[in-house]
Amino acid sequence: MTYPPQNEDVTTVYLKVRPSRRRERCFRLASAALGVLIALFILEVASRIFLYRYAQFIDRLNEEVARQWGGPLTLRDVARTSSNPARVYELWPGARGTFAGQPLEINSGGFRDREWAVEKSPSTVRIAILGDSVAFGWGVPVEKRYSNVLEQLLTHDPPTTGVAYECLNFAVPGYNTVQELATLREVVLRYSPDVVIVNLVDNDDEVPNFIRLRPQWWSLRQSFLVEAIRDRLVGRPLGDTARLLFGGIVQAGGRGHGEHVRGFRPELVPPEYRFLVGWENMVQALHGIHDECTSRGIAAVCVIHYTDLSPLLAAERPTAAENNPMAAWKKAAEDAGFVVCDPAEVLIRYLRQNGAGAKALWLSEKDPHPNEVGHRLIAQALAQTLKPLLAPTNSVRVSSNGGNAASH
User: pTM of this prediction?
Assistant: First the structure.
């Protein structure tokens, strides 16, 4: 054992062997930083566990609410992840309640319609409707939306005697044209329609209401603790953060419209879903729908929807292309080969005869979805377009075995 020299006391020896103040300060800072990192790591793990279980809880709750509650429902309440990536989401089969102020019942196929047999009866003409919230009948009773009114018009004044007419509604709120093509391929074609009607609106080239996200449980690219704080700061619910971790469907936009959107997260549109948006993708989907139909002898019809009729109502020549805000969409449908039903003339005539403004056909002062009168007028315009197609001498006829065929 070594002892300090006789001329040095203990204090002097301690001062020689103790760490420098700088080293001591660095050690303390490193220890504190390590403690903070460990705490943040624990919080991150805890956040992911919580968000994972919260997402599972939300899914179970959504199914229970949609199927059993029977009370007021939102679109998020009745939407679930679709197994088809191109459709992204679909409606809960069996959901029931009230939606947009009207009774809602979703059939076993996941659509707001009565139950339909897949097999078509002989001497029946089936008309399938593809679309979004407009064709869905947002805010109007199911019997008052244009697909149901169209069936009534064709039944009471049939283009061909001895033929029954069925209008099957496959519209889902928030769908765009790409999703409608996927619905046609996955669902509609097996019902053997003779006519397919596509409801074309001015947002059919935009992102749908919901986007499907991949699970990111083990992702090291982002902190879900930070995501949770960030989402809350921009007004997004914690459930959306949980969905980002768990995967599934989440709203791609914020609240509001245009420049007034709050909480918009463009990065929530994953690269694998960019095919859903853009004018070129919409046009390609229109061609796809037309080709799928005509290759099977199905008549392809496109009905143009006007969100705001004010420009046409103010124009001297409302049907002129230069005055038509939907001219580009109409031309896209015509170029794809559709028979186009443009209800503008019928709608403008009604408004002028009644001395009404464009909002007279809106669901409310702030909701531009068509009201019951608007749906009735659209159905009348469609009936005018369809009757020549459904006449015995034209391209659509019913085959003897209950399928569809085309005369050329």
Answer: 0.76
